[in-house]
Design goal:
65% of the residues lie in helices and 4% in strands. By secondary structure, the protein is mainly α. The protein has a two-stranded antiparallel ribbon with strand order 1-2. The longest helix has 20 residues, at 4-23. It is globular.
């Protein structure tokens, strides 16, 4: 089986890569917002939402059986392959450091 926390790390990272590749912008932090902006298929999205609910009721040590996740895991692998295919063509990010610096200053002052 797979720990749901590990599965969500893989899903979120893969979706963030798809978001960046298609939109060339920083992806949202929440999984719900991220999933709203990537094409994952309704069946996969429904399964992911179900797994989020399940995770909220299980201990960290819970391992979900792999067999029911086969289609989702294949999709994650395909999405990762899509990310790998475009990563070398992406320009380096030029983040808005002024905004980040201001955020950190505000946090330190509060």
């Amino acid at each position: 089986g797979v720990r749901l926390k590990n599965l969500f790390y893989a899903i979120r990272t893969t979706f963030a890569g798809l978001w960046i590749a298609r939109r060339n912008e920083v992806p949202p932090l929440t999984l719900n917002d991220l999933m709203a902006g990537v094409e994952a298929g309704e069946g996969n999205k429904e399964l992911i939402f179900d797994l989020v609910q399940l995770k909220s009721t299980q201990p960290e040590s819970y391992r979900h059986p792999l067999k029911p996740l086969k289609g989702l895991l294949e999709s994650v692998a395909n999405w990762q392959n899509q990310n790998d295919a475009v990563v070398s063509s992406l320009a380096p990010a030029n983040g808005k450091m002024d905004q980040l610096n201001q955020l950190f200053v505000n946090l330190l002052r509060s």
